[in-house]
Amino acid sequence: MHIKKRINNNVVLAVDGELEVIVVGKGLGFQVYPNDPVDITLIQKVYLPTEKMSVKQMAVLLNEASFEEILLVEKIVKIGEAELGRTINPVILFSLLDHLLFAFKRHEENLKIRSPIEWEIKQFYPKEVEVGLQAISLIKEEKEIVLAESEAIFIAMHFVNYQFDQESMETTMDYMEAMGDITQLVRYYFQVELDETSINYQRFLNHLRYYLMRLNTQETMNPLDNEEIVLTVKKKYPKEFKCSLKISNYLEERYNKQATFDEQLYLTLHLVRLLHS
Fold first, then answer.
1. How many independent structural domains does the chain possess?
2. By the 8 A CB rule, do 185 and 246 touch?
3. Which of 119, 158, 236, 271 lies deepest, with the highest CB count within 10 Å?
4. Are residues 207 and 261 in the same domain?
């Protein structure tokens, strides 16, 4: 195994045979160069590309995090595996890491938001919520950051998300069609081309998938009081907010479900990240 590219002091892009992989280890990327052999004594984790995430996308996310934050998320995944009694797809590390980095930033800015499907997650996925609560405690212990308990719901959702592999082909096709229509709507509304290989594009699709997951349930969602935050976001990002209304109107017509203030908030924030990051 040899190094193709140094990502940072603890992460490298390596070539193992003909396969490109991401390798993580304390000091693994320190003073190394392309074609250097990987120091196998420093390897702590090797990540293979998947259909859901390329090594390029993995590298971008890992480069944004400290080594300690990567290890923290690894611990949370292990907590999840222990609580749920099954092996979790390792790709969850990247989506969970991405979310927590965003959560830490929101914590610094004192921006508290809640999931639009909090009631359903608590009702139907109590084990996953328990994983989220344990993760919140671990974050407090290791980073001395006190996240709101509502963040446990977001963490739980990442573990719930990996049940999508069990959805019917009919549902999968429906989701794909809806997501395709929405991305076309965004392209047309902003008159832009979207980079489908970018991390922010994948983030946007992941959010849409959660949105569609809720719309596909038969339960009535309890409304959450985030109207004040939505009005603030609406004032700061008027065009993105108007686009989120168009997306919500499309989904309302398709699924006969009305968007909440929380959903408007999240659609707007993800549009901002998609278009301006």
1. 3
2. yes
3. 158
4. yes
